[in-house]
Amino acid sequence: MLFRSRLRHIGINPREYTVNFDFILDGQQNAEYELFLIKIDSFANVSVEFRQIRVINNLQGGRDVAYYNGQTSVVLNQNDLVFWQVANITGTQNCILEADSSWSVKER
Questions:
Q1: Which of 29, 33, 95, 99 is least enclosed, having the fewest CB within 10 Å?
Q2: Cα–Cα distance between 64 and 82 in angstroms, integer?
């Protein structure tokens, strides 16, 4: 699954950014999902800048979710691109990012 939000650094000088995120992921109960912050630099080198694994909680009712929240930092050069990606590690079903999820990026 690929989230549609992407950030490209269009400035000239490298900058360090703080990335805050608060995601609610609806998925297969008791399955592990891994969240990645991916960076692609201007030379097409791909790196994982951050990763976090959570288990989908088996909650009462029809809503089984995992909460991903935190903060990380990333250095971006001109034309570097960052985006989020998620993988189902132990299950087979897809997942849905809930509408109240958000992420923000600001210069340190």
A1: 99
A2: 28
What is the reported pTM?
0.84
Q: What percent of the chain has pLDDT over 90?
A: 57
**Looking up tokens 């791909």, which residue turns up?**
46
As a whole number, mean pLDDT of residues 26-46 equals 92
Tokens found for residue 42: 């201007």
Residue type, 41: D
One DSSP character per residue, the chain reads: -EEEEEEE--SSS-EEEEEEEEEEEE-STT-EEEEEEEEE-TT--EEEEEEEEEEPP--SSS--EEEEEEEEEEEE-TT-EEEEEEEESS-----EE-TT-EEEEEE-
